[in-house]
């Protein structure tokens, strides 16, 4: 598979979710219009994107859905398994650990960590919660490259540094803290409040205009 | 406040989080370099962004932090209160409802809904969980414009439509389902798996290169 431009890669997870929805409905082939209707992306753009990785549809029939899913997974890197560590065994960490989609996308929740002695030893998402003091050791053993911060904002920076020390390269940060890490580390911020702040200005205002 | 370009608005929530972190450390003034160090944005770009809304720093002193925070909040629309409904009173909904940052940003979790009779009537994040059958009525009464989908993927489309019927304009979707709604509705997808799929290709591979 040759190098796919960044802009194309940004749309692939969306296409993949759309294709999985259509596959679950029993579809064997899919047109760029089908994917477009579901994802809101222009079908012409979808066709241009798919050509980048040598996938060509057949006129009037479309793309074979299983092949397309396999190809996208290969490009994204979700065609093989990735171990994840979740730091925080509270409501949020539990919800993430119990997500039903992990195994379907090749992810394995390999470890859950907490500092609270009442949580350590309990089972969350099928995994026994470990003391965060063992993070480095366990993350190394399990070859964990992905970490999820599901903890209060105050502990985010220190915990993120611990994850990086343990070999983690991708962090999904559910706190509002901006964590400062080496540039090679990919941090995806998922704080619900920050996400809402991006969209508030779209609200139709009902207030008198000054 | 005059019209601020979309590209600038996209960086404001990041600046705001950075400024709140610096304010919590007792800072009264802040330079573009301080904000840049924290957020990873180039200081020259920050200065250009801030000029868009008529905020000028003083050379050698910087920007007054409280004024800057107030201005950004005004532009984002988080300077006044917004009511939120969370659909799903499970682990994820509870975690979101219990987020400590809502009130600081002017958000009020006004309602939590569930379909499970064992959850209805219990208290989550200080709010009594209501039957989802009452969504339209309660969302109308509470003037709720923002909805959070914290439910299993299967129910996402139908529940999103219920939220829109009830007057919601912004949806934070924590499921992997692509919901199809009128274009005027802002949907922000926050499924952890989809978010990780965007970054997987950055992982340094330890596999033999073919």
Task: Explain this structure.
- The structure is a homodimer of 210-residue chains.
- Chain A is of the alpha/beta class.
- Helices cover 38% and strands 18% of the residues of chain A.
- The first copy, chain A, contains eight helices and nine strands.
- In chain A, the strands form two sheets. Chain A has a seven-stranded mixed β-sheet with strand order 5-6-4-3-7-8-9, sandwiched between helices. A two-stranded antiparallel ribbon of chain A has the order 1-2.
- In chain A, α1 (6-24) crosses α4 (65-76) and α2 (32-39) crosses α3.
- The longest helix of chain A is centred in the first third of the chain and has 19 residues, at 6-24.
Sheet/helix structural class of chain A = alpha/beta
Order the strands across the largest sheet of chain A as they lie in space. Answer: 5-6-4-3-7-8-9
Number of strands of chain A: 9
Percentage beta strand of chain A: 15-25%
Query: In terms of quaternary structure, what is this?
Result: homodimer
Span from first to last CA of chain A? 56 Å
Shape of chain A: globular
- Tally of DSSP helical segments of chain A: 8
Q: What is the typical, i.e. mean, pLDDT of chain A?
A: 91
Largest interface: A-B, 65 and 64 residues
Helix content class of chain A: 25-40%
């Amino acid at each position: 598979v040759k190098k796919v431009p960044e802009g194309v890669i940004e749309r692939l997870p969306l296409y993949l979710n759309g294709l999985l929805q259509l596959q679950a409905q029993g579809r064997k082939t899919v047109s760029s219009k089908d994917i477009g209707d579901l994802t809101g992306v222009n079908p012409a753009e979808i066709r241009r994107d798919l050509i980048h990785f040598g996938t060509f549809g057949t006129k009037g029939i479309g793309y074979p859905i299983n092949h397309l899913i396999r190809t996208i997974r290969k490009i994204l890197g979700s065609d093989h398994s990735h171990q994840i560590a979740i730091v925080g065994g509270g409501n949020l960490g539990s919800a993430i650990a119990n997500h039903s989609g992990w195994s379907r996308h090749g992810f394995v929740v390999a470890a859950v960590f907490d500092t609270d002695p009442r949580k350590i030893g309990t089972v969350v998402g099928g995994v026994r919660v470990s003391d965060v003091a063992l993070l480095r050791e366990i993350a190394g053993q399990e070859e964990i490259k992905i970490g999820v911060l599901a903890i209060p904002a105050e502990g985010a920076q220190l915990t993120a540094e611990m994850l990086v020390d343990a070999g983690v390269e991708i962090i999904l940060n559910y706190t509002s803290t901006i964590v400062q890490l080496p540039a090679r580390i990919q941090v995806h911020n998922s704080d619900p409040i920050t996400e809402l702040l991006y969209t508030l200005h779209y609200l139709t205002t009902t207030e008198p205009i000054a």
